[in-house]
Amino acid sequence: MEKGYVSLVLHTHIPYVRHPDVIDALEERWLFEAINECYIPLINVYDGLIKDKIEFKITMSITPPLMTMLEDEYLNRRYMEYLNSCIELSEKEMIRTKNNKELNKLAVFYNERFSNLLSVYKKYDYRLMNAFKKFHKLGYLEIITCSATHGLLPLLMINKETVKAQIEEAVKSYTDCIGHGPKGIWLPECAYTYSLESILKEYGISYFISENKAILNASPKPKYGTYAPIALPNGISTFGRDMESSKQVWSSINGYPGDYNYREFYRDIGYEAPMEYIAPYINKSGIRIDTGIKYYRVTGKTDKKEYYDREEALKKVREHAMHFAHGRNKQIADSSKQMDVPPIITCPYDAELYGHWWFEGPEFIGQFIRMASEEWTNFELTTPLEYLKKYPRVQCCMPCPSSWGENGDYSVWLNSSNDWIYRELHRCAKDMIRLTNTYKEPTMIEKRALNQAGRELMLAESSDWPFIIKNDTTVEYAVRRVNTHIEKFDKLYEQIVKNCIDTKWLAYTENIDNIFPNMDYKIYRSL
Fold first, then answer.
1. How many CA atoms lie within 13 A of 376 on its CB side?
2. CB proximity list for 297: less than 8 A, separation 6 or greater
3. Do 471 and 337 fall within a single domain?
């Protein structure tokens, strides 16, 4: 029997949190923590597999904001300061815990871990995109794109020009970094609606990742469910999320990350150590935050946590990777009986789950990939693009509008807590389109202002802001980000139409919100 396929797709995204105008911005640590706990550990996993001559295929969407931040000189300098601080704190912890054998062992573990992160960072010349581009070039990793600033495209479709601008800028940004255009795209929040495919087709996109409901409720009903892609009438394909494999990782009840042997996420010495000791390693304003040094394991539903045991945790990683591999084996065996093409199980996840939320996640991916290369499995790892090349005949269906959010619709990003955002976005979008259609031969200064207006609109469109507001986390920051970008856009609009551009303020704004250095405002031209 011909083997089936498993496609791991990691969605790698952090919103644009570059703040050179703020001393020790808390939000920049979102990026630094992801680098420490997810991105470099994944790079280590990939390098280890290559060193051991393990053949594998994996897909990662690296969003334009994250790509830009990983290449940004200011943020890389700030990350270096952050990592050196982690190393220094771990050195102090080795001294502080010298009389406690269990804690000291963990302090040594963290010191070695942070030192390894620094070594890998240096190896790739302080630019992590160098690593991901290497894996992409060698054929192990397929890098796909996302919309320019992770805007939820179905909710922006009232002004199609803004959706087209999100896709065009994403493709341009990807091409500038990788050297060729993307073939695949992760639609933000896996959110699809009718006619999106026509815009994707225009920019050379061959496929996108969607929620299982997009496939299962497609018209006509797909013959193979999510075990095969479907093709839209214009030829673009979509791969639906497999729910069985998703629940094994994501489920808060039965998911692997909740195992009692894994590291506890919430207990961090940043909240527990004496202030005079921990002050240099938390926020400069004195706000207690995570340091990355966590000494406890999940233990159970109790406040009395036991110390983390790295060896036991890695044993569980192997057990769970084996369980995951056997689960895919069974799915392939069962589904292939009713199929005349090899099934593909599409496993899309947020990359940051692996390492940040689930500390042992990168090791899980490494172990699963190693098991997938063994002869007992009845599947191979592949990417969506490789699967389409091998099996180009795909059933034609129209996917159902959906997202991977709660209820499978767009309600997480559009509800009574955040609906005000879209009134502002749609108003600004109309103004941006009007500017683009009016200023066909702008002066140099006008062009800079028009380009910056485009950047501010895109930054305001990020789906992260309504998501944060709905989930009641860092609400004040999300509201401020939306309002700040809208205010900057409105100021630019007024200065442009009144021919009174403040060049000093414009230069300052270009320096702060410097995403997409090759932005061309004409991407907002009327359709």
1. 8
2. 260, 261, 262, 263, 264, 305, 306, 307, 308, 309, 313
3. no
Q: Are residues 161 and 63 in the same domain?
A: yes
Residue segments in the chain with a per-residue pLDDT below the cut of 70: 1-2, 252
CA angle, corner 126, sides to 121 and 128, nearest 5?
70
Q: What is the DSSP letter of 367?
A: H
Measured CA to CA, the distance from residue 458 to residue 455 in angstroms comes to 5
Sign, CA torsion 495/497/498/500: positive
CA distances from 165 to 18, 162, 204, 447, 516 (A): 22, 5, 15, 17, 12
pTM of the model: 0.97
pLDDT digits (tens, 9 = 90+) for 344-384: 999 999 999 999 999 999 999 999 999 999 999 999 999 99
For residues 214 and 360, what is the distance between their CA atoms, to the nearest angstrom? 31
Residue 48, token pair as written in the block: 């280890």
Per-residue confidence (pLDDT) for residue 2, from 0 to 100? 67
Pairing of strands 344-350, 237-240: unpaired
232 & 308 share domain: yes
Which tokens belong to 101?
């054998």
Helices (H), 373-419: 384-390
Distant-in-sequence, close-in-space partners of 205: CB < 8 Å, separation ≥ 6: 167, 171, 182, 183, 184, 185, 236
CATH number of residue 475's parent domain: 1.20.1430.10
Instruction: Note whether 394 and 460 are same-domain residues.
Output: no
| Domain final residue, candidates 380, 407, 434 | 407
- Show the tokens assigned to 452: 């910056």
Last residue of a domain, one of 386, 407, 428: 407
Q: How far is Cα 171 from Cα 176, in angstroms, rounded to an integer?
A: 9
Q: In 3D, which of 67, 9, 63, 60 has the Cα closest to residue 188? A: 63
Domain count within the chain: 2
DSSP string for 450-463: HHHHHHHHHHHTBT
Q: Are 214 and 379 in contact (CB under 8 A)?
A: no
Helix H or strand E encompassing 40: helix 40-51
Q: What are phi and psi of 500, to 5 degrees?
A: -140, 55
Residue 228 phi/psi, 5-degree rounding, is: -155, 150
Q: How confident is the model over 467-516, as pLDDT tens digits?
A: 999 999 999 999 999 999 999 999 999 999 999 999 999 999 999 999 99
Q: 151: which strand partners? A: 462
Q: What is the 3-state secondary structure (H, E, C) of 118-162?
A: HHHHHHCCCCCHHHHHHHHHHCCEEEEEECCCCECHHHHCCCHHH
